[in-house]
Amino acid sequence: MSQGQTQHSSGCTETTERKRRVYVALNERGYRIGASHHNCTIPDETVAKIRDLHEYRKIGYRRLARMFGISRGAVQKICNYSRRAQSVASWRRVK
């Protein structure tokens, strides 16, 4: 018998699902930010990689855009910290 299942005296097995705790990042105004925002299409890990490659390896916007399959303008805004630059002020549990 696997985890999350209970066996009754009648011999049948009942499956119960464990509830996952999901936390979302919030800014100082209480709004969702980063990958937990509902319109987010670029994961936080990708944003960090883009910034690292640009800042430390001096890779240009156009090449980064081709590497990650996003627009040059989006890469430029990420690298200049005009997009995805908010810091987490708190976390909220959902569901």
Would you mind describing this structure in some detail?
This protein is an alpha+beta fold and 95 residues long. The protein has helices spanning 44-57, 61-68, 72-79, and strands at 5-7, 13-15, 22-26, 90-94. A two-stranded antiparallel sheet has the order 1-2. A hairpin with a 5-residue loop joins strand 1 and strand 2 (13-15).
Topology of this structure?
Layout: E1 5-7, E2 13-15, E3 22-26, H1 44-57, H2 61-68, H3 72-79, E4 90-94
Antiparallel strand pairs: 1-2, 3-4
Helix pairs in contact: 2-3
Low-confidence stretches: 7-14
Indicate the proportion of strand residues: 15-25%
Mean pLDDT across every amino acid position: 86
Strand order of the largest sheet: 1-2
* Helix-strand makeup class: alpha+beta
Number of strands: 4
Number of helices: 3
Radius of gyration: 21 Å
Give the fraction of residues assigned to helices.
25-40%
Biggest pleated-sheet summary: 2 strands, antiparallel
H/E element order: EEEHHHE
Shape category:
elongated
Query: What is the count of structural domains?
Result: 1
In whole angstroms, the N-to-C terminal distance is 28 Å
